[in-house]
């Protein structure tokens, strides 16, 4: 078993490394006033719209967050296929069955006031606030931002300041996520090298840094995710590097969000026999009103002859699979398959 570090120690450590004034207890996207770092037309615009027939999205993609709103699937992910993870736009994909998808514009980094043109648009996530707004969390320039819309289709309006600034919280500030507990409490997740979690504010545009805590589960690399079923919490995450064929998903269990957690187990890993590699950066969603669960994840874009340039880490594809909880509460390992899972939604 392993436990979280002391929250007090973590907050003290964080306070030494950031620039917040003494007495500040909330990190948010509103202060201080921002000055646009560059004119929009001077900022880069990069997207790869190449057709890729090996996955249901028919394109390169990575870092998925699959969600269900109003009886439809919504998928938010990194529009992949640009060298060095350099894509600068996000899209929203909508489906009724995981097989046929519509694409809508979500966010262009050139509209983010604090983005300076460095790096790309990575690893988005979505949460519906207690106020009914849809908050789109994303990475740009190594910082985590937030944007808001009235509907899950977007487009999303970015907040004027990052939610988490680069160089804070003793981790690489990427891979935001959200967890909504059974009582409706919303939590913000993020981190690379160290996993962080903190309670969201009601509008999900800020979080209480005095109640933030972190830990390093297993050989944690990135993409922390939490879901809950029958009173049991499941933390799952990616290990190794996205360019590594052994990129994989591990998980642990606890009856408390604060741990202690069980020893890690493997949930998803490569299948060299079928030329499926780099299986990781996932999320898990429950179909409302059922005990059916789906895992979305990315892997090297499939090629029947085996590894190819898809293994460079920025030519990946997103697929889906059913997730099974065993009678003892453990998770059945997910077996990668050529193609992707199809599950129509009927309500």
Descriptive tags:
mainly beta, disordered N terminus, polysaccharide degradation, 4-stranded antiparallel beta sheet, Glycosyl_Hydrlase_43_Enz, 347 residues, globular, 21 strands, Tachylectin-2, Chain A
CATH superfamily: Glycosyl hydrolase domain, family 43
Give the radius of gyration. Answer: 19 Å
Low-confidence stretches: 1-27
Give the class-level CATH name.
Mainly Beta
The fold-level CATH name is Tachylectin-2, Chain A
What can you see in these coordinates?
- By secondary structure, the chain is mostly beta strands.
- It has a single domain (61-332), classed as Glycosyl hydrolase domain, family 43 (Tachylectin-2, Chain A, 5 Propeller).
- The protein contains 1 helix and 21 strands.
- The chain is globular, with a radius of gyration of 19 Å.
- It starts with 6 loop residues before the first helix and ends in a 24-residue tail after the last strand.
- Belongs to the glycosyl hydrolase 43 family.
- InterPro entries: Glyco_hydro_43, Glyco_hydro_beta-prop_sf, Glycosyl_Hydrlase_43_Enz.
- This is Glycosyl hydrolase.
- Pfam families: Glyco_hydro_43 (PF04616).
Quick synopsis:
Pfam families: Glyco_hydro_43. With 347 residues, this protein is mainly β.
Present the secondary structure layout.
Blueprint: H1 7-17, E1 26-28, E2 61-69, E3 72-79, E4 89-95, E5 101-108, E6 121-128, E7 134-140, E8 143-149, E9 157-158, E10 177-180, E11 186-190, E12 195-199, E13 206-208, E14 213-215, E15 220-229, E16 232-239, E17 248-254, E18 265-268, E19 280-286, E20 293-300, E21 316-323
Antiparallel strand pairs: 1-13, 2-3, 3-4, 4-5, 6-7, 7-8, 8-9, 10-11, 11-12, 12-14, 15-16, 16-17, 17-18, 19-20, 20-21
Family: Belongs to the glycosyl hydrolase 43 family.
Keywords: Carbohydrate metabolism, Glycosidase, Hydrolase, Polysaccharide degradation, Xylan degradation
Pfam family, one: Glyco_hydro_43
């Amino acid at each position: 078993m392993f436990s979280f570090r002391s929250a007090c120690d973590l907050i003290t450590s964080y306070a030494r490394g950031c620039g917040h004034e003494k007495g500040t207890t909330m990190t948010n996207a509103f202060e201080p006033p921002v000055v646009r770092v560059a004119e929009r037309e001077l900022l880069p615009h990069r997207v790869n719209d190449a057709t890729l027939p090996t996955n249901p999205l028919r394109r390169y993609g990575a870092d998925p967050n699959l969600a269900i709103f109003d009886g439809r699937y919504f998928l938010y992910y990194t529009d992949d296929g640009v060298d060095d993870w350099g894509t600068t736009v996000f899209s929203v994909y909508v489906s009724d069955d995981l097989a046929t998808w519509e694409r809508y514009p979500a966010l262009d980094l050139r509209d983010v006031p604090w983005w300076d043109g460095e790096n790309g648009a990575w690893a988005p996530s979505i949460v519906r606030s207690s106020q009914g707004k849809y908050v789109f969390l994303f990475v740009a320039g190594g910082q985590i931002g937030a944007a808001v819309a009235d509907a899950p289709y977007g487009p999303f309006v970015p907040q004027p300041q990052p939610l988490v600034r680069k160089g804070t919280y003793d981790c690489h500030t990427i891979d935001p996520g959200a967890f909504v507990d059974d009582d409706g409490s919303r939590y913000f997740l993020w981190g690379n090298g160290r996993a962080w979690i903190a309670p969201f504010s009601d509008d999900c545009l800020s979080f209480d840094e005095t109640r933030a805590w972190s830990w390093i589960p297993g050989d944690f690399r990135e993409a922390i995710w939490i879901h809950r079923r029958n009173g049991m919490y499941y933390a799952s995450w990616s290990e190794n590097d996205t360019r590594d064929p052994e990129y994989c998903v591990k998980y642990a269990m606890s009856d408390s969000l604060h741990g202690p957690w069980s020893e890690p187990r493997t949930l998803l890993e490569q299948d060299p026999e079928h030329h499926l590699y780099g299986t990781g950066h996932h999320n898990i969603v429950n179909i409302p009103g059922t005990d059916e669960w789906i895992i979305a994840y990315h892997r090297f874009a499939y090629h029947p002859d085996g590894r190819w340039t898809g293994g460079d880490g920025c030519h990946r594809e997103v697929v889906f699979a059913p997730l099974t909880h065993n009678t003892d509460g453990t998770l059945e390992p997910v077996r990668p398959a050529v193609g992707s899972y199809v599950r129509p939604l009927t309500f």
